[in-house]
Amino acid sequence: MTANVTVVETTGSETQVFARIGNQKVIGVFRDRVEDQSGQPMAMSPNPASVNLFDLKTGLRLD
After folding, report:
1. Taking the model in full, what pTM does it have?
2. Any idea what DSSP says for residue 38?
């Protein structure tokens, strides 16, 4: 799937990528440096074993 990058934030050992897939906001956390920049498309293939989902109302992680 292709995400539209809105923000790339380097935070020490990780890089957070804030993006949109359609109307859905997504955040990717990468252990490696990410070369993508705001406004660019980024191919994403999430690993289901590493995905965390959160409840929009409570902010709690869904198990």
Report:
1. 0.75
2. T
Q: Taking CA 39 as the corner, what is the angle to CA 53 and CA 15, rounded to the nearest 5 degrees?
A: 50
Tally of domains within the chain: 1
Q: Tell me if 29 is assigned to some domain.
A: yes
* Bridge pairing between strands 14-21 and 2-11: antiparallel
The values of phi and psi at residue 49, to 5°, are -70, -15
Beta strands of 1-63 (E only): which ranges? 2-11, 14-21, 24-30, 41-43, 53-54, 61-62
Q: What is the mean pLDDT of each successive set of 10 residues along the chain, which is 63 residues long?
A: 93 93 91 87 87 91 89
- Name the DSSP letter for residue 14: E
Residue with tokens 């990780």: 14
